[in-house]
Design a protein that fits this description.
Blueprint: H1 8-20, E1 25-29, H2 38-41, E2 52-56, H3 61-67, H4 81-92, H5 101-117, E3 121-123, E4 129-131, H6 133-146, E5 149-151, E6 157-158, H7 164-167, E7 172-180, E8 194-199, E9 204-205, E10 219-223, E11 225-227, E12 243-247, E13 250-251, E14 265-267, E15 288-290, H8 304-307, E16 313-316, E17 348-353, E18 371-376, E19 395-400, H9 411-419, E20 422-426, E21 448-452, E22 459-462, E23 478-482, E24 489-492, E25 505-507, E26 514-518, H10 519-525, E27 540-544, H11 555-558, E28 566-570, E29 576-578, E30 591-592, E31 596-600, E32 607-609, E33 616-617
Parallel strand pairs: 1-2, 5-7, 6-7, 7-8, 8-10, 9-11, 10-12, 11-13, 12-14, 14-15, 15-16, 16-17, 17-18, 18-19, 19-20, 20-21, 21-23, 22-24, 23-25, 26-27, 27-28, 28-31, 29-32, 30-33
Antiparallel strand pairs: 3-4
Length: about 625
């Protein structure tokens, strides 16, 4: 139910009225911390509603007995070891028998969805989830039985560390987003497998021997550390390390990573670093390299990227690399984007390319990408806060075309166009239309399309000359058109009926003079911005294919077009066009500037204007 009252009393009354309508109903009050006045909240009970039963949960028995005066208490005991291990496996999300990072990620999202369905994870804003604190405490308790863990809550202040005896037993140390006063000279943790230290205070110095007592470590995750001029020499002892994350750290020379032969994941996200050492190219087992938001990074040595032949995921969003052009005669020691062609296992790519002239030609590797965020041109801003921060499957492509070079004809770029889900095109130089000039198949995967700042564009879909055109944008949900000064129409020529079948929102360009819509489009647009804002520039509107006999001419929709001069209605089942009271929208002016009305193949038409129609035309 929805509450339409703002006051507590009003909402309580609304809730009480709704509950009393049910002959029998169960109300669950979860995780009560103190006395709750049921009358004040609006929950009827006892003689007020004998069919209303209450279940109240709390971690404090005194709250139930003394504050809520419950009739009967049921204690939920700790799980047996076998059952607790099953729950731990489910919560931990173990990914066994997986060969690629993509498989692991897909398994992760499946587990998240399973936990959502089991109510073990709660929904948050923007598609995020959180774990109920009771579930989290239980999961941590179960996990600690099998993997002894030292951890603290977020934003805690770490003043002292566990004793030497305690440290030697830990398998995991987890201090997320903490204020760490200082690090010990050395952590003697022979059983430690995972070390996560996220420091949000001043960057911390790490002593030379800090890592020497944790040689079994497989995952090291550091944030907010001062690792200059180079990381601690004892880092080289971590020969079993598979994941190294140095995020938000100050870095200079990190060539010591060469000693970490087992490394599969290397992340320097948000760290301060200017140049990558060529030694990274010798990490033959590396599967992920994350340089997202390393905004000061400028130089990557030549042949470093092409040497990482096992790489599956490469993140370079918000990095401003000075790429070499392999076709150039100038000799350079910088990496070129042509090196991507050597990465036959690459499945995920995030990259910003400010200068479109360095775009690599005819790369077949783009056909294998399953997830990508590729921004070409200097007008785009990186919107993802963290690597992989898009959805579980996202393919975003943005292009600001350059006058000096045409990427649109490149084979590799067309592979991306074919698979893109989110596409932004700007400053198009030689295109009069988008479909079917750029993609003959009608962009079958595309869900979001934005076109802007392209003065030569005359239409979006041009089907003239296409004998058997594919449906145009069959999966498109949003369409945004901005600053297209010569755009005359969205569709030029006939298009298949499945075209635009999933469109939910359209933002119309200010200079659009002609608009062609069918019945399905108008129904969809009724709930979009058209229903809220007047349209000033469209003077020629064509409505077609309203085949449902129960459909009424869209008067309310029509009045949004303030300066409409020509209206054409074709192939529809309307019985009348302007009916009585059809323009009662709360506007004081119902006079339209319509000069020409064209009606074609309206076989059921009885009236153009009803007898009592208040419609006026300024002819």
């Amino acid at each position: 139910m929805k509450f339409n009252k703002e006051s507590i009393e009003g909402r309580a009354t609304q809730l009480r009225n709704r509950l009393t309508k049910e002959k029998s109903i169960l109300v669950i009050l979860d995780d009560i911390w103190g006395r709750l006045d049921l009358v004040e909240v609006g929950i009827p009970f006892g003689d007020d509603h004998k069919g209303c039963k209450l279940v109240v949960t709390s971690r404090d028995l005194n709250v139930l007995n003394c504050e809520m005066n419950i009739q009967k208490a049921f204690r939920i005991d700790v799980l047996h070891q076998e059952d607790s291990w099953k729950l731990f496996e489910k919560m931990a999300g173990l990914c066994e028998h997986l060969h690629t990072l993509t498989e692991a990620r897909n398994q992760f999202f499946n587990l998240i969805n399973d936990l959502r369905a089991s109510s073990l994870l709660l929904e948050r804003e923007r598609g995020r989830v959180r774990m109920h604190d009771v579930v989290r405490d239980v999961a941590k308790s179960i996990a600690s039985r099998f993997h002894p863990t030292y951890s603290m809550k977020k934003y805690s202040e770490v003043k002292q560390w566990p004793t030497i005896d305690q440290l030697q037993k830990f398998h995991q140390i987890i201090l997320p987003w903490s204020y760490i006063n200082e690090l010990p000279e050395k952590l003697e943790c022979p059983e430690l497998r995972l070390l996560l230290l996220h420091n949000i205070g001043d960057n911390l110095k790490v002593s030379d021997e800090f890592f020497s007592g944790m040689r079994a470590l497989t995952v090291l995750d550091l944030y907010g550390m001062m690792l200059t001029p180079s990381p601690a020499p004892s880092l080289s002892f971590l020969t079993n390390l598979q994941t190294l994350i140095l995020a938000g750290c100050e870095l200079e020379d990190i060539s010591i990573v060469l000693e970490l032969k087992s490394l599969e994941i290397l992340s320097l996200e948000r760290s301060v670093i200017i140049q990558l050492p060529e030694e990274i190219g010798q990490l033959s087992n590396l599967r992920m390299l994350n340089l997202t938001n390393c905004s000061r990074l400028r130089f990557i040595p030549a042949n470093l990227i092409s040497s990482l032949t096992c790489l599956e995921e490469l993140y370079m969003g918000n990095c401003f690399i000075q790429w070499d052009v392999k076709r150039s005669k100038d000799e350079s020691n910088n990496a070129s984007l042509e090196e991507l062609s050597n990465l036959s296992h690459l499945k995920t790519l995030d990259i910003m390319i400010q200068d479109s002239s360095v775009w690599p030609r005819d790369l077949h590797v783009f056909a294998k990408l399953e997830r990508y965020n590729i921004f070409i041109g200097d007008m785009w801003k990186w919107s993802l806060e963290w690597a992989g921060g898009a959805s579980e499957s996202s393919r975003t492509l943005k292009l600001a075309e350059s006058k000096s070079t045409s990427i649109l004809s490149d084979y590799g770029f067309n592979l991306l166009l074919k698979s893109a889900e989110d596409l932004c095109l700007a400053q198009l130089q030689r295109a009069r239309g988008v479909l079917y000039e750029l993609n003959m198949e009608g962009f079958p995967q595309l869900m979001h399309l934005c076109i802007e700042d392209s003065s030569e564009l005359e239409c979006i879909v041009n089907s003239i000359g296409c004998f058997y055109p594919y449906p145009a944008l069959p999966n498109l949900e949003t369409l945004a058109l901005q600053n297209l000064f010569n755009l005359e129409e969205i569709c030029h020529g006939p298009i298949p009926i499945q075209s635009f079948s999933k469109l939910k929102f359209i933002q119309v360009v200010p200079n659009l003079r002609e608009l062609i819509l069918n019945g399905r489009d108008v129904t969809m647009l009724w709930n979009s911005q058209f229903n809220h804002r007047p349209i000033y520039t469209v003077k020629d509107l064509r409505l077609r294919c309203f085949h449902n006999e129960s459909e009424i001419f869209p008067h309310s929709f029509l009045q949004r077009f303030i300066n409409l001069e020509k209206l054409m209605v074709t192939c529809s089942s309307f019985t009348e066009i302007f009916s009585s009271g059809s323009f009662d929208l709360g506007h004081s002016e119902t006079t339209m500037k319509l000069k020409k009305l064209v009606l074609v193949e309206l076989h059921n038409l009885e009236f153009i204007c009803g007898d009592n129609s208040d419609m006026q035309f300024a002819v």
